[in-house]
Amino acid sequence: MTISTTKTLKVLYVLAWIIFVGVSIEAGGFIFSTIYTLEINPVNAHRSWPGLDLSSLYDYDRGYFLAEMVQISLVSVMRAVLFYLIIDILHNNKLDIARPFSKNVGRFLFRVSYLSLLIGLFSWFGTKYTEWLVSKGVKLPDLQDLRLGGADVWLFMGVTIYVIAQIFKRGIDLQTENELTV
Fold first, then answer.
1. Candidate from 3-7, 31-35, 121-125, 147-151 with smallest mean pLDDT
2. Is the per-residue pLDDT at 128 higher than 80?
3. Which candidate, 24, 125, 143, places its Cα nearest to that of 82?
4. Residues 124, 143: contact at Cβ < 8 Å?
5. What percent of the chain has pLDDT over 90?
6. What interhelical angle do 151-181 and 103-135 show, nearest 10?
7. Phi/psi zone of residue 93: left (φ > 0), alpha (ψ -120 to 50 degrees), beta?
8. Could you tell me which residues come within 8 angstroms of residue 74 by beta carbon, excluding any fewer than 6 positions away?
9. Burial status of residue 175 (CB atoms within 10 A of its CB: 0-12, 13-18, 19 or more)
């Protein structure tokens, strides 16, 4: 029994929706928690997100707390946008399996590569910022708990998808030339 590409894409579509909802809840939780902690209840810094105690950072400086939470929130929002792009291309039938070299797919690949690179860059800046804060004596959770780990993986993925996007761009050009000559 072979699994067709259409069935695989349907499974990926469902998985993308599940991940999108999870990442969106996480991003919204970080944004809400930041505003709630800064404006309403500073005690919330102890449990701003499950497993995330940033009370030491909040007590050290509210501005540094805000900067850290903005970086975490930005990375989470960009991950949500990435999965939204995947849902969008799979849902709106922009992906034609019979003719994969289309402008929609090329545009999608470039957007995903740029977004992956941005996630990698913001994660890397967040990692360096967190390491700098720890060197100042601020007790912070692990980078994985801060959702800032894996910057190198995001950068690698961004570069890889960018190369694939360039190959697709050339494929689109060749397909267009072939259609014009026939």
1. 3-7
2. yes
3. 24
4. no
5. 56
6. 170
7. left
8. 122
9. middle
